[in-house]
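pasting OmpA family protein for the record, 203 residues
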Amino acid sequence: MTTKIRALMVASLALVASTAGAVDVREVVIPDSVGVAVEPAHQAHVLGEAIRDSQVKRTPTIWIVTEPSRTRALMPEEEARLDAIDAEAAEAARHVRTTLLFGFDKSSPAEWAALESSISDALRTGSVVKLVGHADDVGSDAYNQRLSENRAISVARYLIKRGVNKKNIKVAGRGKRDPVSIVDSSMNRRVEVDVVKAAGKTL
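structre below
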């Protein structure tokens, strides 16, 4: 008789003993082949142990694999992604951006102080200065287009007076398109200054 069958028989005896109530364990016949002897004084303990032993408890095996750190060559897509990140960072470093604000219907900014930090970069050899003028939404499209262009031109004249080569300045007007605020219209009356340094030039 296998161990599994023995365990099942012992468990059955325990069940009979627990449910019969008046049945004495001494009256229960256990085959000799089972190899289990139950004494009346120890019936609860012996049967209880048999029940626990019949329950097979298994826990899943957890494999922990540790490997020493090692270097490996980058895959082509990883190299391409890192190259793209480097190129984007290098391109961003070439740009020095400033915004000048203007009063209502004015072609000259309220002050030039915001532009001072960009002049040294604009004077570098190979730098290109992009000036884009903007206006608020008061007035016609045609009027605001001219106003935005005049604002960019006034900034260009200021830079030329400070020594920036006019051939390196590009001027454009966007009129009342591309507003940056729908709450504060004064933020839309502006010239965006973008000084693009020559490739390979750093601060």
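The radius of gyration is 44 Å.
The chain has two domains: 3-54, 91-196.
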